[in-house]
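re: the backbone from monday

yeah here it is again, tokenized this time
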């Protein structure tokens, strides 16, 4: 597999420091404006800004190891199956809405090792995987043939303005809940006018979540969560910086950023619970209110406004 970056991908890339165009020279990408040099590791551009906060790297490495490890208890296995179903729900809806889009640039931000994105592949489409962790991108590149992958941080997306026709992101923004506005603004910048946004995240109003994420003060919630997972010796404790997001706030930010045709769809799966609580959820979700507002995941679709 080539160690170089395709010319099609290079044309989309920009310097995360100054926004200048990049040119490949001697296995590096060099900014034409500020001369900063970026490594290419096994065909993957490493486009990290100089002031990147590296405190999340270790947590994300642990999360990556968990993604690759299918082992778990019976309860964990049930939850993992629900995570799998939630991704299938998401990608099936994305495919359905993109059926009429035969060409264009598609990006999955925070892609991890999710291969559902590859189902969007069509002749004339360019798929780009973006993640903080190069090891996860290597997995997609080497095992599943996603050649266009880029490592960087969502705080400084290294792409030119108006580069993408479609942007997908699953379970990313709750990692950045304190900085959601800036993150969504960066999504808006790299989408073309009229481009589609497909966003999924963990619902702060979830049936088994809202009494903690909505009713408790955030600092108290964080301390109690750490205590709980410490006592339980959880194999997959959430990172300290994670916090579920409100679909109402997310929708409001998108409207303020100029997105249009905003639509919210609840997903039916409910990860992070066992079979017993799932049966409770399925029974209660016969109520339209529970089904609409208290699911585990919400999915937002929107279009960038045309000036």
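seq for it, each position gets an aa:
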């Amino acid at each position: 597999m080539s160690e170089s970056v395709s010319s099609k991908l290079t044309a989309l890339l920009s310097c995360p420091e100054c926004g200048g165009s990049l040119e490949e020279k001697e296995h590096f990408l060099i900014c034409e404006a500020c001369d900063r040099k970026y490594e290419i590791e096994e065909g993957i551009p490493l486009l990290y800004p100089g002031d990147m906060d590296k405190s999340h790297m270790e947590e994300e490495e642990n999360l990556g190891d968990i993604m690759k490890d299918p082992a778990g208890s019976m309860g964990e296995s049930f939850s993992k199956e629900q995570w799998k179903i939630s991704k299938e729900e998401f990608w099936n809806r994305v495919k359905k809405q993109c059926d009429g889009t035969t060409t264009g640039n598609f990006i999955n931000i925070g892609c991890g090792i999710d291969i559902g994105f590859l189902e969007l592949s069509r002749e004339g489409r360019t798929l780009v995987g973006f993640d903080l962790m190069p090891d996860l991108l290597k997995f997609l590149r080497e095992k599943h043939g996603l050649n266009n992958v880029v490592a960087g941080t969502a705080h400084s997306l290294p792409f030119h303005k108006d580069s993408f026709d479609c942007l997908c992101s699953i379970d990313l923004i709750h990692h950045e809940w304190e900085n959601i506005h800036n993150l969504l603004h960066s999504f808006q910048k790299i989408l073309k006018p009229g481009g589609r946004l497909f966003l999924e995240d963990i619902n702060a109003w979830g049936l088994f979540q809202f009494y903690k994420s909505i009713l408790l003060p955030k600092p108290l919630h964080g301390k109690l969560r750490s205590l709980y997972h410490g006592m339980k010796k959880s194999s997959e404790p959430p990172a300290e910086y994670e916090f579920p997001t409100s679909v109402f706030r997310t929708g409001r930010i998108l409207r303020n950023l100029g997105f249009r045709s905003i639509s919210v769809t609840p997903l039916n799966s409910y990860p992070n619970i066992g079979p017993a609580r799932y049966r409770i959820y399925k029974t209660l979700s016969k109520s339209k209110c529970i089904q609409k507002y208290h699911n585990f995941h919400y999915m937002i679709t929107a279009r960038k406004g045309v000036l």
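The longest strand covers residues 191-202. The CA atoms of residues 208 and 291 lie 13 Å apart.
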